[in-house]
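Before relying on records like the one below, remember that each one covers exactly one chain. Contacts with other chains, cofactors or solvent are not represented anywhere in the record.
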Amino acid sequence: MPTKEAAQARDRAGEPVVELTDVERVYRMGNNEVRALDGLTFTFRAGEYWSIMGSSGSGKSTLLNLLGCIDRPSSGSYRIRGTEVATLDDDELSEIRGQHIGFVFQSYNLIAQLNVLENILVPLFYWDEPPPDAEERARMLAERVGLGGRLEHKPNELSGGQQQRVAIARALVNNPAILLADEATGNLDSKTAQEILALFDELHEEGKTILLVTHEPSVGRRAEHTLRLSDGRIAEVTHNREGAST
């Protein structure tokens, strides 16, 4: 992160970023009711690095979708930096996503027709008034993730690890309150995965708030803390010596 943003992140350390209170997400499948999240109450604070784990069907993907304002709770309260999200309409949710949330996906989700610089800038395309230094910021982030010399390359000209680095830079371009990563190393070889995780470690050290969904215990332990879900409820909270020391 640029030095000014790192300083701002340190100033906010410990403040509530995400507050969930009695959150439920219920899906109806025919006559059946599925409680993907069942009365979840939790607070994620600025500067924390969490892994979110659980078996298939535990609710971790549903939680990530709610945190990312892709979905909304059936009931309960979800606040991000003090703003109640659960009752917002679609346009307001889009605004929250654009201003406060950064996403890193397993499949990168880059736009094939755009080059590295343009892909990094994509989140700002949806702002009513993009910041005047948007391109300069995107170039700085490309340098930050080691791709300053590849700005004109298209995704098909990059390795998987390089594409994921572009995705991380894209996720940071709006200076989000929270960085959400969904199985971010799932498509990478072990060496490249370690490089991406090292980058997350650096971002955490600079004050970024990171929530990383993973099914891999070794990846989960890289985070400071682990939230384990089961049947839509919190089954366990652990504090990882390995993650806390990075």
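The beta strands are 16-29, 32-45, 49-53, 75-80, 83-84, 101-105, 178-182, 210-213, 225-230, 233-239.
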